[in-house]
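<amino_acid_chain>
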Amino acid sequence: MTGQVTITWPAADRFSALPLACGNAIDPGIVAADDWRDWSDRATTVDQRRIENYLDRFSLAGKRILHVGIGNSGLALRFARRADEVVGISIDARELTLAHGLGLANYVAVERNKYAGLGDDIEGRFDFIIDNNINSACCCLSHLQGLLEEYGDRLTPCGQILTDREGLAWIPEAAGLNPRWRFSLEDLACAADLTGLTTEAIGSHLAALSRGDRAQPTLASRTSSLLRRTPPAVARRLKRLRTRLARR
């Protein structure tokens, strides 16, 4: 199923259990525990993997990717050589140390609290913004709105923000956070609509936010993605077949 999500209730009623403002302009957001924010030595989560697999369907030549919450830098390892640039942000020093130690030419990782703004040193616009936990560590609706507005402002004309239902619904169990921060896709659509972003479901898990007609993977780029995920011997035969068909 793919399509625009319907906003069912007014935002004021939908988000009445969440604070409008937190009063923290310096370091907004919630950091529940030190081990919660460090994902440098953990495997890529299932929801993050789904986002990456969808991103893999695109031709990334000349494209810029912003990865919010770099974790183990698996996204950069997978895509930095194909893209023009991958910019990653994190609030955790260990994640940043790992990222800097990779030595990837097209990968820049900086310390940044996304709810406080990306800052002027992260320049330009992005074709893809990847954030599978848009709301999970948020402190108030004002900072969530500010985040979505900045994401929208940082998109290229056909750019998109990619996220996943599982990440939207996740908050740390032991953090004592307001359980209402567990978002459905309809919650995200309602919040995004207030900032001029359209939310589109992609299958049963993923979602894309955009301010216009977002880019779509082409037949050629989808075929290339399929070949990358196919066993080498089979992939070689498929490539030869594709070459023969192209000559006819």
In short: The radius of gyration is 19 Å.
